[in-house]
């Protein structure tokens, strides 16, 4: 705080004057109050107000280079957390700006040039002081202690415990991550007395919470109480007059919490973890982030990668590469030109909410498509593959999102002449993951002071929803149009996918495998035969055992895996599906599976080549890369669930290729969805959570990979039982862990030579072997949260990859 240098100093009561003089000497002590006639200057960092318990601070908060907003924030949280701002859409200069308590009762925020940027509505009142309370409420009071103005009445995006949320208040999101200016998402009491979330965008307004498809009653709310008041208490319980109630997952007293309308459109309750002074989410309104409306603008689609990201469909591009709110613009003319020939592009599991031009139920796919063809305003239609025949024709594409749970697909109407294959030809080679382009944050807006300007304000902007654009071109496929552009059946669509992946006839495969003569192996899922296709490609054909899936379901799943393409994953060339037979056609791997090389069967006459150290390291790294790809990079997040040496195939160069991943069920990303009930896997490689009946996550694969990695180093089956000291039977893994765990942390005691396969006769890279053992042990931790991710494993292996082959 600073005392005013001229005008009002004489009107100060003597005691205050004394204080004021004192403060200019001991100005490093933060203050509890600001008095009438004085001001707080932006330069004066020591003059900021704090609440008596020091938890909250009020003052000028930096929002950009030389740009500040008068704000309240948590004093000690990591990087500060702003809870309130006076005018967040207008920052002030870092010099000469101030907040003043005027004698006429007003509290005013002024910029360098004296312009009033914000003020209270307290003209003519007998203002005495401004105080920051322990609750985080900033109050302006008169000498009698009456509150004339309080920050709790005008929240920005945050509601604090015991702060009443009323018909006059709103929470409005910030524009983007790390940004402070007002965005488009709003939490408010609607006219029907219910609390809602709405997107108030530049082009559309759209309610998205509670679920707009349901009635208020079905959503558990009521509309008869017009009080319109809501509050959350110190326990973390939120109660509203419309019957909405929820509690923090860590409900209880003594925890700091805040309810925030986040920049991504979700409403979240955060609890403070005081050990790290960081915030953890203890409740959120929308578990599926992409169901927030307006996230990706017009024509944009929210996809999980697995983080929610915005993308443009084929035939569209970002309108403004810096702003997803502006959505995507078509690369073709959307005129109602009947002479223009059109086709439809399928976007699986994609929804565009609202703007229904056509709605029909119980109609066939062709009827739905024709309805959309006939109306030139129809830009796309949504139809359920599940077969209840719901048909929605859209005249505008908003609120697009792709969800693995969504039983419908969107069919985009595009001009026939438009060549969308250019997308898949652009950077990024992988068809499943699309090409991912990362753009750097940009956009700074320079505001120059007029007149004898000295200061320039620079506001930095971060990109709203991240800037990764995933092209869809490769997950849709063409419907090749025959007569008047009408596909004869969905099956034609499948056949039209590039020759890379296709449907085979049973006869073709019977011929290729010479009537299923040359058996390569048997697994839990079926028998594998060697075959040669008519184009001389050598393939492995797997005859699936039990047929439980419906044909359509089988297609859908297989097609997904057909689009997965990574050098360390066995390529699926196609499938055959009839009433009796289900077969998969795979790439053939010359050197068979890893187990044959690691644990050769001495009884077998054919000897598999012994694996030297370089091969072992390459196999470990390649396998890790393949798994990391399945876990982290694929759009269809896949958990393998049955990692073992039998499922690691080796090609002619001994490059590993993971097999059988196609048969684990597609996992739904995140939260409650990441569970499945069926037990899969092989004893000895299965993570403990299978037995404990815990939700299955990608960490089960990390566990299995750890076992395989240790087996690669040691050259023996660790899942086998061994007798120790002629007394105790334990698995090889348990024994290894017992031996190694005691010494692994100690560089002097740990002797990697004791672990490495003796058959290598000491020809191995010590650093690589040590890294592999360490990774292997961290992967088989009982607590899955302590296991690394596959990305981290790849990183760690890459770090010792280029070590020149220093043999020890
Ligand atoms: C906090 O600030 C540091 C350094 O300025 C930065 O590296 C870190 O990411 C920030 N953390 C958060 C949560 O913003
Ligand atoms: C100031 O505004 C608040 C909220 O809009 C209102 O409740 C209050 O009566 C106003 N005060 C004066 C003095 O106008
Ligand atoms: C309306 O809600 C308020 C606050 O929850 C409550 O005090 C009041 O009794 C309710 N009125 C009716 C008619 O239920
Ligand atoms: C769209 O139409 C305008 C004029 O009508 C033309 O100049 C433009 O090239 C067309 N764009 C495309 C992509 O066909
Ligand atoms: C309609 O499309 C045809 C073929 O694309 C084109 O030749 C014609 O100029 C278009 N007409 C209008 C009015 O855009
Ligand atoms: C589409 O573009 C790709 C790449 O530019 C090209 O190879 C292909 O022949 C084009 N297809 C058509 C139908 O024009
Ligand atoms: C691919 O990316 C590289 C660099 O990342 C760039 O130089 C090149 O122009 C890109 N090619 C295409 C077709 O976008």
UniProtKB/TrEMBL annotation:
InterPro entries: Bulb-type_lectin_dom, Bulb-type_lectin_dom_sf, EGF, Kinase-like_dom_sf, Pan_app, Prot_kinase_dom, Protein_kinase_ATP_BS, S_locus_glycoprot_dom. Residues 1-28 form the signal peptide. It holds the Pfam family B_lectin. Its EC number is 2.7.11.1. One of its GO terms (molecular function) is protein serine/threonine kinase activity. Residues 25-153 form the Bulb-type lectin domain. It catalyses: L-seryl-[protein] + ATP = O-phospho-L-seryl-[protein] + ADP + H(+); L-threonyl-[protein] + ATP = O-phospho-L-threonyl-[protein] + ADP + H(+). It is found in: Membrane. Keywords: ATP-binding, Disulfide bond, EGF-like domain, Glycoprotein, Kinase, Membrane, Nucleotide-binding, Receptor, Serine/threonine-protein kinase, Signal, Transferase, Transmembrane, Transmembrane helix. ATP binds at residue 543. It is a single-pass type I membrane protein. Residues 286-322 form the EGF-like domain. The chain crosses the membrane at residues 455-480. One of its GO terms (biological process) is recognition of pollen. Residues 514-798 form the Protein kinase domain. Residues 336-427 form the Apple domain. One of its GO terms (cellular component) is membrane. PANTHER family: OS07G0415500 PROTEIN, RECEPTOR-LIKE SERINE_THREONINE-PROTEIN KINASE. Belongs to the protein kinase superfamily. Ser/Thr protein kinase family. This is Receptor-like serine/threonine-protein kinase. It comes from Protea cynaroides. The lineage of its organism: Eukaryota, Viridiplantae, Streptophyta, Embryophyta, Tracheophyta.
